[in-house]
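OP here, attaching both records as promised.
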Amino acid sequence: MVREVSAGGVVVRRVDGVWNIAAIEPQREPASGAADAKKKSASTLLALPKGLVDPGEKAAETAVREVREETGVTAKLVTKLRDIKYFYVRSWGDRQRVFKIVSFYLLEYASGNIDDISPDMRIEVQRAVWVPLDQAPKRLTYRSEREVVKLAQDYLKSHPELSA
């Protein structure tokens, strides 16, 4: 069985007293028919930025890099939140079953403009947006990522020094 290791980030930024996180709307594969097109356009897929750990790279470095590439913002590491483990079957090529581990980190916004990403990255990311942190557990598509965001909320509540 193939094994993949990825890392991603929950980037937080406080604007006018409200915490926001950076989320991405990934590009979707073209729908195969009219029914698929209607179903896929009915809801927006929102996810946390993440990607494969490159050889020689640490997971935390990957999280910071993937956030920059997929959202356009630079962020600094605060803490590790959680590892998510799951299986999936590749929808391309060999259709192999894959065991995947994704390490998620809490990151604090440092600079940059959301959605200021390279044209090459538009193949993967349709857009990047700020989402109010209190809405993120309802708006993110994947249950495991919603749980990661709740861990970020708990961390921010117990570390008020980040609110400065």
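Record two, same layout:
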Amino acid sequence: MATKDKAMDDVIFITEAAHVVGRAGLAMAGAMCGTFVAAGLTKANAAWFDSAPFIAAMVLFGMFGFYLGIDIPRLRITAGVRPRVDPVELLSATGTFLAAVAALISVYSFVFDEVLGGFEYIVASWWMIGVAMQIGAGVAGRLYVAV
């Protein structure tokens, strides 16, 4: 009986470790996206955006947003009850989409050395709104499940 319990503990540990490693990978993807958005903004030649604290903030927001906001607990579907839209999941998905579009445009601008004009500020606002939505959804989803 003890061998069976140990095997179950090993499976749970491996599953949890895989989950943490996956979330760490998402955080690194968010950091990379934040780096590209920050690089696009530094090309806009605005003094406020061309600073190490700003770039670090963009990277950290990306890390937290992608870590918290992509893998959130889902609403439980109960038998006999009509399924409904989960606002937390919708917030997370919308935030992820906005942040990813902003990162994609920034990567394009950076790789092909394109100047987006005043569009960099719009892209940056999509990034910040998207990441804020991810963080908010991640926190709300975890608080909702914990209650």
